[in-house]
Amino acid sequence: MSDPTAPLSFRADEIDRAALDQLASVLDVQAARPGIRRLREWSFAALRVQPGESALDIGSGTGSETRALAAAVTASGRAIGLDPNPSMALLARERTEEDGSTAQFVVGDAYSLPFPDNRLDVVRSERVFQHLSEPDRAVAEVVRVLRPGGRGVIVDSDWGTAIMHPGDPLVLQKIMGVMLAHTANPHSGRLLPGQLTAAGLVVEDVGSEALIQDPADVTGPLVQMMTAAAVAEGAITDAQRETLLDQLTAAARSGDFHMSVTMFAYLVRKP
Q: What's the CA gap between 114 and 104, in Å, rounded?
């Protein structure tokens, strides 16, 4: 079992299978959050995926949304999930076999999509661009593989909107500073409209939800990761971390805990 207090990377191409299992558990917990569910429902309604279409899920992770795409395109279409980590792709395949889904999974990255030009009807990506140091390259790839008239939904977080309460404001600021520094593209949520438009896509609609952590998660992997990383960077001390965790735990019991980050979803079309 991996150490729950060890810093956990959210880049699936940089972690081993033990840490991958921990990340998968975090993704499973987040997938159950109302904000994630509502934004995914909005995304699928906006995309209007049809039977027989070809759909790509960039950064497919555990494969849950690729399987949803597969159900929408039916056996006459094709839904493919792409992830940079072979172990994550394997985990998604294992879950897909258990579900009897027709979803397929390949290993690859957002900078070089393994598809011909003008081939796909639908592309979706969720919370991937925040990890990309060159998001414009990934947007260009989305444009390249979409057929004229094809559409996509790009969902991403904006970590400049993150809130954690309660706690010493200076300690919280330092923790968030480390989080921002360790995220390649932390303000992706606000930057995407300009990047998508500059690449030639038409932004037709925008959705937004807050990913709100449950009070039960106060001692879970995400909080542990963020605070442990701040200690490792020397931004806060072990004593400050312990004090904060105690404050957050007490607040969760009393109903005074809040932790969230805002996500934005952009429906785009290729002219």
A: 13
Cβ neighbors of 14 (< 8 A, separation 6 or more) are: none
Q: 166 preceded by cis ω (within 30°)?
A: yes
The answer as to whether 90 is a domain residue is yes
The residue type found at 160 is G
Residue 202 has pLDDT above 60, yes or no: yes
Q: What is the pLDDT of residues 144-178, one digit of tens each?
A: 999 999 999 999 999 999 999 999 999 999 999 99
* 3-state SS assignment for residue 117: coil
In a domain, 237, yes or no: no
pLDDT per position as a tens digit, 253-264: 999 999 999 999
pLDDT at site 27: 86
Q: How many helices (H) and strands (E) does the chain have?
A: 9, 7
Query: What local confidence, expressed as pLDDT, does residue 175 receive?
Result: 97
Tell me the residue range of the domain where 95 lies: 12-162+184-212+260-269
Number of domains in the chain: 1
pLDDT score at 6: 39
265 lies in some domain: yes
CB burial string 22-44: b at 16+ within 10 A, e below = bbbebbebeeebebbeebbebbb
DSSP E strands, the chain: 54-58, 78-83, 104-107, 120-126, 146-165, 202-212, 258-269
For residue 221, being part of any structural domain is answered with no
CATH number at residue 57: 3.40.50.150
